[in-house]
Amino acid sequence: MTNEKNKLIDLSSMDNFEIEPSWVKKSESKNTYQKSSGKDRYPTNDRKGERRPKTQNRGNQKQLRIQNREDHVNFEFKILPKKEILDRIKREMKKTGVSYALSDICKTISEKKERLTIKIRFEGDKPKYFTKTIVDQKVFSTTEKAIDHLLVNYFESSFLKEIDIEDKLVKGFNYIYRCPKTKFYLPPNSYHRFEEITKQHMWLNSISEKYDKFLGKLEKVEDSEEIKLWTETPLIIYKFAIKEENPSWCKGIEQLRKKLISEIPESLIEKTDMVRISAASLNLLETNISEQFKAYFKFKTNWSGQLFTSCLVNLKKSNFSIFKYSDKKITYACAYKPNKNIQANISSSAQKILSILLKTNETKKGMLLKTKELDCLTSKDILLELKWMVKEGYISEFSNGVITVN
Q1: pLDDT at position 56, please?
Q2: Cβ pair 104, 6 in contact under 8 A
C-alpha cells in the first residue's frame, strides 16, 4: 500500500457528521491536572489552663494517621469507547464502505474524553461497593463520604430539622470562636456541647471541610462585650430526620449521620460494585478516585490496548470484516465482507473499472478518474460503480483513497 499517511476520523462535531475518504482533522488535546496543598492549624489558647480542641491530643492524632492509611484504597480502571460514538462511526462506515485502520479509529475516539467511557472497580478480590448519591450521581468509595456530601450540600432538599434544645448560656466565658465563613459565633472548646454545636453549624451552612481543618480556621474572640452579647441568646440544638412520609427523628446531627450510615436510605443513595461514567465527567468522582484515574490516564500505554480490544470486539460482533493489510500488517475494519465471486452479469461499466484495477495491486481513486480508458464514463458514474462494488465486497477502498481488488 502507498506510504501516504491515513487521516483520522473527525468527530469534533457530532452535528452534520459525515465520513468521507479523508475523514480526519488533526486535533490536539492536553491533559492538565493541578494539585493543591495547604497546611492545617488548630485554634490555640494563650491562657494557661484553657483546654484545646480534642483533635490536638496526641492519641487522636495517631488515630487519625491510622484512619488515613485505612482510607487509602486503590482502584482498577478500564477505558472503553463510548457506545454512541462507536455506533455513529459504524453507521458512517456502512454508508461509505471505506475501510479504516483500527488504530486510527481508536486514536480519533481517544482525542476527546467525552468519547470515552470509564469502568471503575475496587482493586483486589474482596467484594467492595461504591456509594452513589441519587440526587447528583456523585460516586464515593465509602458510605460515610456519601452521607457527609448529602448533609453538606443537600440538607434542605433531603432532610428536616426542628428545635430540640435551647441551651441558655452562663456568663463567664473568657473567649469564644467565630466562623470565618458565616461570621457566626461558636462556644469555646471547654463547652460540653462544643463538638455537637460546631458540626451542626458546619452541616447547616454547607461547610464541606473536614472537622479538624475547620477547627484550625476558627477565629478566637476575646472581646468581653462581644462575648456578653453572644451569651444573651440561647444556643439552639436541633433534631433531624430524613424527608419522608413518617420521619424518624434523631437527637443531634451525629445521631442522624450514624443512622444514615447503618441504615442506608434507598431514597438517597445506592450501592454498586462497578461504576461506569464518561471520562469527561470526573467531577462526579470522589477526589481520591479521580486523582488515581488522572495518574492512570496520563500514560496512554496503560489503556490503549484496552480501547483497541474493545473496538475490535465490538466491530466483530457487528459483523464487520476485520483484516490485515499493507507491509506492516495493519489491522483494518470494513462494514462489508470481501467477495471474490464476481458476478458474470455485472454492468459493463463495472467490468471496465475492474479490468483496470486488476492490472495493479492498488490504485488511487484520483488516478482512476483520470484514466483514458474510462473517458466514456462520467466521474459520477465511476464513483457510483466504485461504491456499489465496495458494498458488494469486490473491492476495498481505504481512507487515503487507495482501491484494491479483494
Answers
A1: 45
A2: yes
Q: Rounded to an integer, what distance in angstroms lies between the CA atom of residue 121 and that of residue 159?
A: 31
Spell out, as residue ranges, where the chain has pLDDT lower than 50: 1-7, 11-42, 44-52, 55-56, 64, 66-67, 70
**Domains, the chain, ranges and CATH?**
1-25+70-128+273-335 (no CATH), 139-271 (no CATH), 340-405 (1.10.10.10)
Q: How many angstroms separate the CA atoms of 11 and 88, rounded? A: 10
At 192, list the grid cell. 460540653
Which residues have a Cβ under 8 Å from the Cβ of 343 and sit 6 or more positions away?
Answer: none
pTM: 0.73
Query: Which tens digits make up the pLDDT trace of 196-236?
Result: 999 999 989 989 888 999 999 999 999 999 999 999 999 99
Cell 462585650 sits on residue: 225
